[in-house]
Automatic annotation (TrEMBL):
SMART domains: HATPase_c (SM00387), HisKA (SM00388). The keyword Transmembrane helix applies. Its EC number is 2.7.13.3. This is histidine kinase. It comes from Spiribacter salilacus. It comes from the Bacteria. Residues 408-619 form the Histidine kinase domain. The chain crosses the membrane at residues 167-186, 198-222, 228-249, 261-281, 287-311, 318-342, 348-368.
Amino acid sequence: MWALLAGTSAAQTQYPIEELAVYTGPVTTETTVERVADPAQAEQFEPLNDHYSAGYSRKPHWLRLTLQAPPADVTGERVLHIVGKPSFLGSLILYQPTEKGFIEWRNGMTVPVSQRPFPDRHLSFLVEFADDQPQTFYLRMQTPSSAFLDLTVWQPVDFARQTVSELLLIGIYLGLLVAGAINTLWHRQWIKDPLQRTYLLFLVVMFIHFLGTSGLTVKLFFPENPAYAWIIVATGTYVVSATLIRLLIHAFDMHNGPKPVLRVFQLVFWAAIVFFPAPFLGLHSEAAQIMVMLGTLALSIGTGWSLLLIVRGQTGSIALLIANLVPLVGALITSLVLLGFLPGSNTLFSTFQVGLLGSLAAFQILLAQRRQWLEKAYAAARREIRQAEQTAQWERARADEQQQFMSMLTHELRTPLSLIRLRLDAENPSRSMQAYAQRAVSDMDAIIDRCAIASRIQEGIERVSAQPQLIVDVLDQVISSLKAEDQVKVTWHGDIAGELIEADPVLLRTVLSNLLDNAIKYSKDSSQVGLVAEPSMFEGRDGFRLRICNNIGATGLPDPARVFEKYYRGRDASRVSGSGLGLYIVHNFVRRMGGNVVCEVTETPNKEVCFELWLPKTSLL
């Protein structure tokens, strides 16, 4: 964009060049302007079309420039700006003829800005015409890089406009690079993605290198030490090549692709690294020629590989093709300019920069697609991690439950089995021994029954069949089935003799049996267990509340927050036979019947545990 717009602007407003010619006679470093300007050497000049390119050459090059005198301005002066590009030429000297000889104006990357004929980022000369007659100037160019020259001539007003226009376009170009970097940094995926990190590095390298090739580095940062700016430009050739190749290696995922293609790109990458010191050793001209050809080769292979990926239907292959093809076209044109096969037009030279900008746009598309893919991959990975964690947590819970179950069985069955073994080993067992053995069998049977019920609850196969029942009858049946029914003291509050309760008869008897049996087993010294029954409201529904309380013996108070957990048993509860499943079963059955059960513990004045059960009245009333 910069090259095209700047070139269009230049074509519209620049001052016409009457003649530009190059000296083709023998030239050495000792050749003087007097020899070149000798009328006898006139036939040694060949005409040019405003541009000149001799490829990578360290020898001096002489040019002849003829300009018509411009119109006089309001002050009567006739002034023109002669601008030479690129700004990184080593030396560009302009000779202006006078009656006494030639005035020498020195410019180039070896000349500090303060000593230049005109303090511009380009190699500019401000020349005056004494009258309205044309003038012929001579230019001597010598550079350690590619010897190409793009000459433009401007009247002062047009020069000022063109300078502002170029700076504006440069600002847009650099702004696009910064915008690309901000966009990549914003998504934060560059922290984990090597492709995006390399892309960020490439943007930084492009930014610095463009500052150098546009002349802003010497103008802004090293005005008195322009040699530093030239080093940045020269070494930037290799750094840009290395980072671009590295970027393409990651973009193509070449480490998982064909090894010959990877080897070629690695060769170009390491060549750029090896050639990096060339400007310091005075070998930049030779190294740059090799680097230009290797870079073009890599981009050509990348373009071919992109086409193959498009045929295969790989995601992002079109963006990869653009990222290779656009800079390839620019690199080919720029290479032909640098090697001297095309005219030294700065617009043509800048096509590589334009190509890289197109490549950056393609990479933005590629990175956007890659970010979407990475986000999906990260989301899938997070889901898998969560599933794995949930599975592991479930397996740990199952393993803990199995361990608790085995510990409970081992502990609770040991005593009954010991009693049964004692009975079997006795030749003449006493009645009490017989009773202990029978009780042991009953305890084992109860433990097995509760384990079976708990298993059905966990598997969700325990069915609820609610039906109306007389609350008084259910309590009488349950209490009369207890071996220690005399310990239970029932208190009725209100007239509930004919009241019906909505519950599953089997589950309800199991709940009441477990609560009463639990209260009797853990009561202090066979003390009474209190049961209070009364009508009650719960969450706006009519029902009945059954409160079962007992004073705790040596087993200690349970934790009311954990008492309904599976396999939970209070401190010192091991003195009493049990599975730790009874209250777990109670809690689940009550919830299935639409009721509620809570545990309350009182430490003073007597250690007391109360279970409060609420069940709804029948809806048929």
